[in-house]
Amino acid sequence: MTLVLGISDSDLAAATGSDAALRRFLFGLPGVDQVGAEARAAALGTRSIKAQTKRDMIDLAISMIDLTTLEGADTPGKVNALCVKAQHPDPTDQSAPHTAAVCVYGDMVPYALQALGPDSPIRIAAVATAFPSGRASLDVKILDVRDAVANGAHEIDMVIDRGAFLSGRYMQVFEEIQAVKQACEHAHLKVILETGELQTYDNVRRASWLAMLAGADFIKTSTGKVQPAATAPVVLVMLEAVRDWHAITGKHIGMKPAGGIRTTKDALKMLVLVNEIPGEDWLSPDLFRIGASTLLNDLLLQRQRLRDGGYSGPNYVTVD
161-176, pLDDT tens digit by residue? Predict the structure, then answer.
């Protein structure tokens, strides 16, 4: 039996037996040292990266992107263009890797599936459960998920009910995640915590563990609609959670920062955090994703600079 943070497998099994047990477990987690978390995240963000390593990390970051469009004005044509870019991020350089996924609204999934084809290695992720607010009945949320899965989504990005969580209705949040997980069938489930609304790092840690207890395949910071979103200290806290979960259970849970990651520098800081906290196993699109809409262009420009010795300019990458 492995003990991490004083928690064992049997503690995890008992944690969800009742509302009171779940509350005791969540509030029994060690508090986050705010100063320490922010200082460590800042220190890791100053790591010097040599040129060849930077080239490799840029390609790795591209391969981890969930290339995203989540606007009310999304059209089939926009989704098709997004899929083309996901497949061939740099049309002038076929060595550029494809992205991990495209992320769209559920009704756009058929267009993404048509654009990518049934045998594409690029996954289709659909946001669901009344994204981004999460303000709907459970029946509506489940229908939203089932519709996206029926349309062909490989992954579901759900949002938790932050109002329920902040009101202390933890069992309600747990049961909703469980119900969504069941509705996902074969699709992987990413659980969005919307960390910008959770107020404290302690709440981020509790929500991370709650999502993992309920069956999340990934835990995700944000919808991208609320700021602050994927800050380095928040990502650090969530990466510690997946690391500790693995140490106790032997099971890998993925992690996805989203919102506010716009530059190559931002992305490389995230990869350093991954390497230093859960470790090399997570340096894979199977266990780490970056939700982004504009990041890819900057990664491509930096990639071109390292390849050619100079910037070719923003007009040499496609407009998102």
Answer: 999 999 999 999 999 9
- Residue 152 backbone phi and psi in degrees, to 5: 115, 10
Mind listing the pLDDT tens digit for each residue in 52-87?
899 999 999 999 999 999 999 999 999 999 999 999
For the sheet with 65-68, list strands across it: 254-256, 218-220, 188-192, 155-159, 123-128, 101-105, 65-68, 290-292
Q: Is 309 helix (H, G, I), strand (E, B) or coil?
A: coil
Q: Domain 9-308 is classified in which CATH homologous superfamily? A: Aldolase class I (3.20.20.70)
Whether this model's pTM surpasses 0.90: yes
Quote the tokens at residue 51. Answer: 């040129």
Domain boundaries in the chain? 9-308
Q: Show which residues are catalytic.
A: 157, 220, 256
- Partnered with residue 7 across adjacent β-strands are 4
If one counts every other C-beta atom within 10 angstroms of the C-beta of residue 137, the result is 9
